[in-house]
Design goal:
The protein is of the alpha+beta class. 19% of the residues lie in helices and 31% in strands. The strands form 4 sheets. Strands 2, 5, 7, 8, 9, 12, 13, 15 and 17 form a 9-stranded antiparallel beta sheet that branches. Strands 6-14-10-11 form a 4-stranded antiparallel beta sheet, with no helix packed on it.
Amino acid sequence: MTIVDPVLAQLLRLIPHHAVSRLIHRLARWESPRIQPLLRWFIRHYRLDMSEAVEPDPARYPSFNALFTRALRDDCRPLEGDARSILSPADSRVSAFGAIERGHIFQAKGHDYTVTELLGGFADLAQPFARGWFLTVYLAPRDYHRLHMPVSGQLTTMLHVPGRLFSVAPRIVAHTPRLYARNERVVAFFDTAIGPVAMALIGAINVGSIETVWAGEVTPPSGRVISRTDYHGRNINLERGAEMGRFNLGSSVVLLLPDHPLHFSPELGPESFVRIRQEVARITQA
């Protein structure tokens, strides 16, 4: 940490987050041959491995967002483990993980937030996770930006919680109290073999939108009211490792797991890199 980090975090709070993000939303979808130099610079600068993409030719991407949300070949991310494996939801860096203590989730040194805050104030949705587990991961610009299921489950509820759009870069997260509970987010809840599991897709500055495979583009929103959609009885089932959504530009995911016996993979640690379909935890009891 340098003295610049807290000052930068303070300055970023003054930016009109949503206005900037709306502009980026439009620019990222601009389709023109003129964007090709930008795409090729981005690939070189962030060292994207285009050999993993279904379409490796940059010229075939009509917009920046199309490149950013590129599909990967299935053989690049094989399923690890078995039915007891909990998989990484994204190609990402680990920000934090561990036990949820009395309903509080660790964010960074000196900062935490509550499950209830993260879940829009809905105590009934938060209750199963009060003494559960969490994993927070951060997607950098070079990462694959589609999100995948950590376990097999049936969709039960989706929340859209409007909020700020602070940067989720680690140096900003460390100096912005309750950031994940303040940023705009989409939270999907699934009924699984170990109980309720939730994936909170956290918005951030420049994140033009968040999509899910069942609802399409959820953000940017048309209003500022929390929405809660019930999917019970609609039989939307997703297998572990299946695509469930995407960030149109990057952000973070907070994975919530219930109070069920499990242990995290010994390879997991702060700033460790994980890939989709990689085992990050293992269920220890049926």
